[in-house]
């Protein structure tokens, strides 16, 4: 998403909009590209749109051309600090669906206070790459059902943890570590490192909460990252998710930015 401030631009009449590919548009000023727009499906099937333009009027022209040609609902994500861009999306008919805080947390156990982070008695941590996929999927489905029944906010979670086509709830099994007990998997944590280390999900079965399992999973995941040479990890927490906020702030995580997910 473009976060540059909008500037006074060319005359609105000077800009033409061309659809250059499937779900891709260009704004042209005398054959010079002065803005781009696109739409893409994410893993959960939702359609997200983006517009990159220096000028507010160019943004509006792209939105006017793109949005009627795309099926609703449409989603967009914007850095909350970019007020101009957020206002542009609102002009295009989008409203805030949720706010998500980005946190950064030190991986060094001497800094985050997690130490060895041992799980409670009878629970062991199974590292990523050693997890039974069937048990993982069963635990993931059960946690999703519990959250929906109790809080109803699973559908507002990030795209990578929303129910996917075909009913699958796991994106990539190799990215999950789990807390295992004789009765099955009680909790799970997902970490991806493609661009920078990111904790995508920490979740525990309803009957196993308040036993330190989430903290033990986080200690394990951050410890692995620390041994691999990463000084910090990032995560996103929905504003209304108080347990996750308490978990990360309890280990010294610092909020560094906030994003708005918008919907039309």
UniProtKB/TrEMBL annotation:
It holds the Pfam family Acetyltransf_1. Residues 123-264 form the N-acetyltransferase domain. InterPro entries: Acyl_CoA_acyltransferase, GNAT_dom. Gene3D superfamilies: 3.40.630.30. It comes from the Bacteria. This is GNAT family N-acetyltransferase.
